[in-house]
Amino acid sequence: MEGNSFNTVTLSACTFGCGMLVGYVFAKWLREQESESKMNSQASYKNSSDEEMFSDFAQGDQKLVLVVQNGLKMGKGKMAAQCAHASVMAYQHCVVNSPQTLKKWLRSGQRKVVVKVESEEALMELAVKARKAGLIVSLVCDAGRTQIPSGSRTVLAVGPGQESLIDKITGHLKLL
To answer: Which positions, given as ranges, span the membrane (predicted)?
Structure first.
């Protein structure tokens, strides 16, 4: 009986030790993979040519303008959520349709400005002007689950894009 007990303890200790060793080796490998991945992403960013970097700055600053439809009298939290929706929509649009614009905006600090209009008509006029100017336009329509009616147009995102072009469309609006 004592022999079986000794064998069981020995086998358990060996199994435990092997498990610890495998875990240690796997954790070390995983850390190396993460480190290598970070170095590769930093290298690809740093390997941009000086000429490319200069052309980004020569074109001026980049920004995203969020235009809130203030006539809806949304609460602060609702307004913030709608602005977040518009920002994400604009980002997703850039990822798919305008990766160079996205790259420039990310390099210039991802500036965002929030302004207001007092009516849906004013919001839609801005959307039409921005589209005609070739800017990225994202319009948030509310689902109507909380404070405002379903389908209400709440926030218009103009950009990201070149600041001077966006200012021609939204520069006259008051900050929220």
So the answer is: 6-27
CB 121 within 8 A of CB 153: no
Q: Mind listing the pLDDT tens digit for each residue in 88-128?
A: 999 999 999 999 999 999 998 999 999 999 999 999 999 99
Predicted model pTM: 0.68
Give the phi and the psi of residue 142 in degrees, each rounded to 5: -75, 150
From residue 19, alpha-carbon distances to 11, 22, 151 in Å are 12, 5, 57
For residue 156, the tally of other CB atoms under 10 A from its CB is: 25
Residues 6 or more apart whose CB falls under 8 angstroms from that of 102 comprise 91, 94, 95, 160
